[in-house]
Design goal:
The chain is of the alpha/beta class. It is built from eight helices and seven strands. It folds into two domains: 49 residues, RecR Domain 1 (Helicase, Ruva Protein, domain 3, Orthogonal Bundle); 129 residues, Dna Topoisomerase Vi A Subunit, Chain: A, domain 2.
Length: 205
């Protein structure tokens, strides 16, 4: 695209660097922002600056939070004996939207993917092991995406926890192979959590 303004071109370049945003879409978004008043633009930009500067990660579960302990971990009505292991905050939101799960979470911050240079030490597995050792956790629910990387991570976690006194479950395969949890409809995901099975039984399916 040829631009009449270097400022416009730079703005489009930055906008198009976002996942799933092409140059044409970025151009339309930038033109929309250009039509807004200065106060609106300042609020828009400040929200992202504050996000990067002030956001915290929960000390217990690694969820994105405004405080050192997230609202879910702080909620006394949640069942602290059950912990659902997910890849990132998108999965927490997807599961919360089902209204079927009342336990707590552990966010790995990624999944094992040698192709992408992500190994076990790059995600929050050891912190999960420490939680199981030091807290009265009765069940770990593995709720990672049904991909090769997700299955590899599930297997690694199960090996790390096998000698500890904790039940390990996996969400039922109502979630199709290859699906990311955030794209699964709420009813299917809710049923997959409710119909979870012992992890060792998942190999026969």
């Amino acid at each position: 695209m040829n631009f009449s303004s270097k400022l416009l071109e730079n703005a489009v370049e930055q906008m198009s660097s976002l996942p799933g945003v092409g140059k044409k879409t970025a151009f339309r978004l930038v033109l929309h922002l250009l039509k807004q008043d200065a106060e609106t633009i300042e609020k828009f930009s400040h929200s992202f600056i504050a996000l990067k500067k002030d956001i915290k990660y929960c000390k217990h579960c690694y969820n994105i939070s405004d405080n050192e302990i997230c609202e879910i971990c702080n909620n006394p009505n949640r069942n602290e004996k059950i912990v659902c292991v997910v890849e990132d905050i998108r999965d927490v939101i997807a599961i919360e939207n089902t209204l079927q799960y009342k336990g707590k979470y552990h966010i790995l911050g990624g999944i094992i993917s040698p192709m992408n240079g992500i190994g076990p030490s790059d995600i929050n597995v050891e912190a999960l092991v420490e939680r199981v050792k030091n807290q009265n956790i009765e069940e770990i629910i593995l709720a990672l995406s049904a991909t090769i990387e997700g299955d590899t991570t599930n297997f690694y976690i199960s090996k790390k926890l096998k000698d500890l006194d904790v039940k390990i479950s996996i969400i039922a395969r109502g979630v199709a192979i290859g699906n990311e949890l955030e794209y699964v409809d709420e009813v299917t995901l809710g049923r997959s959590i409710e119909g979870r099975i012992p992890y060792e039984n998942s190999f026969s399916r």
